[in-house]
């Protein structure tokens, strides 16, 4: 949720604007590292899935069996775009699609065992690559990372699991 800046909704004071600019710059640099990690983790499966398709698989991994419209909302795309992605994943044997038993007008999507294995394999690669980077950071600089990244994910409306909710294969 966004912080209220007052009724006028004006620009932040100069010192806050400078801090915000520095934070945005640092996040941009970190995002380049994370994009590179993501690209490398998908390198061995790029003939199977694209980055967009992998994101769909990861979201399905977190949601479990879900309706197409819910999946589209979580991906922040239209239902037709989600359906095209699901069709490609279905053809690759990574997801299943069937009518919802409670509402025959709705379509339900789920990962196949092959889809779960692919998510686990790629996630394991990402975890290892990220761990290498984090391990090179001084311990004193790592301490606030979990809180800061969790707050960042929450502000972006990305579901943040509790430690008990994290699946064995990770996110």
Features:
single chain; mainly alpha; 7 helices; 3 strands; disordered N terminus; disordered C terminus
Describe the structure.
It is a single chain. By secondary structure, the chain is mainly alpha-helical. The protein is built from seven helices and three strands, in the order ααβααββααα. The protein has a three-stranded antiparallel β-sheet. The model is unreliable at about 1-5 and about 165-170 (pLDDT under 50).
H/E element sequence: HHEHHEEHHH
Largest sheet: 3 strands, antiparallel
With strands numbered from the N-terminus, the spatial order across the biggest sheet is 1-3-2
Low-confidence stretches: 1-7, 167-171
Report how far the terminal alpha carbons are from each other: 23 Å
Question: Could you estimate the helical fraction of the residues in percent?
Answer: 55-70%
Q: Indicate the mean pLDDT.
A: 86
What structural category do the secondary elements indicate?
A: mainly alpha
Question: Which word captures the global form?
Answer: globular
DSSP strand content: 5-15%
- Tally of contiguous helical segments: 7
Tell me how many strands there are.
3
Radius of gyration: 19 Å
Concise description?
The chain is mainly alpha-helical. Helices cover 60% and strands 10% of the residues.
